[in-house]
Amino acid sequence: MTEAPITAVLFDMDGLIFDTERSYRQAWHYAAKEQGFELDDALYLSMIGMPRTQSEPKLARALGPGLDLPRYRQQRDAHFRQLQRQGIPFQAGFEPLFQRLTACQIPTALVTSSRMVDVEENFAQRPYLSQFATTVTCEQVQRGKPDPEPYQLACQRLRLAPAQCLVVEDSNNGIRSGLAAGCRTAMVPDLQAPDSDVQAQVHHLLDSLEQLLPTLADQFEPGRLG
């Protein structure tokens, strides 16, 4: 059976569009050290792609009852904001890819585990946020990635079947979410290498966003990319 052509592209944000994951990692480690903890990097990497409603309880269980979570949250977020104000760059290939999709009138969605305030801060002074057909943030779903709900909601808003939508992610949890929603998937790893289950199931594994259109151009509707 022939697969339906790709009709829309659904983007994660942190680590895929923006080079934010290194700043997040620095902020998470900083806040842990402020309370005398050493945050295991493997623990941090396992939480990439999760909303804070899932990652913070996981952190608290790992570090134990001595962690003051509200204080940790405040210090982590303040440190990240300080880094964010210095400017967080786009990942290589995002701007020409997004501009091409927009010029060809291919719908796009932003599907992120971050809050809307973080989305708006990252895209401040940049023209792209309003060009997404829809944006799904952690406040808009009950269950975040790796649950399929975020990508299911994006597909519903676009009025497209999941099989018509390409999910582009940098994290294992994000790819699991897209797969569970029934979408096509492409992983562009950033800090996190693909786990064995993800590597076995992901449709495309790319080195950068610059490879996406050259690799997948024939899977879009004929003539759609010009």
Automatic annotation (TrEMBL):
Query: Which CDD domains does this one have?
Result: HAD_BPGM-like
Pfam families on file: HAD_2
Q: What is this protein's name? A: Haloacid dehalogenase superfamily, subfamily IA, variant 3 with third motif having DD or ED
- Which SUPFAM superfamilies has this protein been placed in? HAD-like (SSF56784)
Q: Which Gene3D superfamilies does the record associate with it?
A: HAD superfamily/HAD-like, Putative phosphatase, domain 2
What is the species listed in this Swiss-Prot or TrEMBL entry?
Answer: Ferrimonas marina
